[in-house]
Write a structure and sequence with these properties.
FAD/NAD(P)-binding domain; 10 helices; 19 strands; eight-stranded mixed β-sheet; alpha/beta; about 30% helix; D-Amino Acid Oxidase, Chain A, domain 2; about 400 residues; globular
Length: about 400
């Protein structure tokens, strides 16, 4: 039986990118893919906010992410559908515009405040009576599943093994993880990297570990191709989700089964892809259960009502409610690196802005894992390592 250098668990964007980069670095890699379409990658907007750095680290990573995306279609020999579009951040009536201006000053390249008339020039579908103003900036975008497919194809061309099997557990001998179990068999490896999003928590708990990785239930509406065009990525200017993620991460409700951690948040937004399909969203629910905690019909009604106020053309469009889990961490940075107290086990998850951050971080982390960087992690890696938080044993 072959012993792999690395087994990567999970074929969302994180697993697809990291498995490719490891194979590119010369490793024998097995990618375990459970085939679950209801993933955060599949239902993502695919946005790349390369302008949105707020620290030296995030600014460097986001700029590197945009540079990496510009290389990927040629390198992977497949179209990732990279494009730049206008991001339109809509301001509700009665909003405190001065507070929003100050909030956006923290970014590397702050979005600019524009009038309702200017917003309508950018996006003719906007109802002028529904907003007070907008902020705008150029924003990059890819098709999520085209990017994952491109990574997968390039991975297989490099000799990587892509197995459609769900990981049922980790093989642990003492304080060392030596492989991964599926329903069919166990696969040995020198290193196992868990890149399974929210489900990473369960896999690690099975070997007695709890890591500070949290998740939201993201709910959207997925449409078929529409016979009209929404030119821009629409999102609300007042976005409190990141603040709420920090609040949720500090809560002890995660230890309670089937518990609402904090109230949900609804962000009225829409993105239309090159094939004319659209994602309309989104509700983010902070809830400890893994199954959807809300009624899909009620959620869909709330999402539709919110977006139709701003874009009446979306009223009554066909669409299907979708649900997925999206991970986050307490400080907004990814959670990666060797899992303390257990050798042979790494985590690669918690990317709040995955399409902006995963490509450059996967490339850098693969170089670190394979010895192409110095033994001690460089500045782009060390601030994201798990050991910045405590890792608890699950009793």
């Amino acid at each position: 039986m072959q012993t792999y250098d690395t087994i990567v668990i999970g074929n969302g964007l994180t697993g697809a990118a990291l498995s490719y980069e490891l194979a590119k670095a010369g490793q024998a890699v097995l990618l375990l893919d459970d085939g679950n379409r209801d993933s955060g990658t599949c239902y993502s907007y695919g946005g790349i906010g390369y302008w949105a750095g707020t620290t030296e680290l995030t600014t460097t990573l986001l700029r590197a992410g945009m540079a990496r995306h510009r290389e990927l279609s040629d390198e992977l020999e497949a179209d990732t559908q990279l494009r730049e579009i206008d991001l339109l951040l809509t301001v509700e009536k009665e909003a405190d515009i001065d507070s929003l201006i100050n909030a956006y000053k923290v970014f590397d390249r702050p979005p600019q405040l524009i009038s309702v008339e200017a917003a309508q020039e950018i996006e003719p579908q906007i109802d002028a009576e529904a907003i007070a103003a907008a902020f705008t900036i150029r924003h990059a975008h890819v098709d999520p599943m085209s990017l994952v497919a491109a990574y997968n194809q390039a991975f297989r061309r490099l000799g990587g093994h892509h197995n459609l099997s769900a990981a049922s557990g980790l093989v642990r001998v003492g304080n060392k993880v030596t492989g991964v179990m599926t329903e069919a068999q166990a696969y040995p490896a020198q290193t196992v990297v868990v890149a399974a999003g929210a489900y990473s928590r369960n896999l690690l708990r099975a070997v007695g570990l709890q890591v500070p990785l949290f998740f939201t239930h993201a709910e959207i509406i997925e449409t078929p191709p529409l016979d009209f065009e929404v030119r821009s990525l629409i999102m609300p200017a007042a976005n409190n989700r990141f603040k709420q993620e920090a609040e949720a991460a500090a809560s002890d409700q995660w230890q309670q089964p089937n518990s609402q951690v904090i109230p949900p948040v609804l962000e009225a937004g829409v993105i239309q892809f090159a094939d004319k399909t659209a994602r309309i969203g989104q509700i983010s629910r902070f809830h400890s259960a893994y199954s959807p905690p809300a009624d899909p019909t009620d959620s869909e009604t709330a999402i539709r009502r919110a977006i139709e106020q701003q874009l009446p053309i979306l009223k009554g469009v066909p669409g299907t409610w979708r649900h997925c889990l999206v991970t986050f961490t307490q400080d907004g940075l990814p959670l990666l690196g060797p899992v303390p107290t257990v050798s042979g086990l790494h985590l690669f998850s918690g990317f709040t802005s995955p399409f902006a951050l995963v490509p450059p971080v996967a490339q850098r982390y693969a170089q670190y894992l394979t010895g192409h960087l110095p033994d001690s992690p460089d500045g782009l890696i060390k601030d994201m390592l798990i050991d910045r938080f405590s890792v608890e044993r699950d009793h």
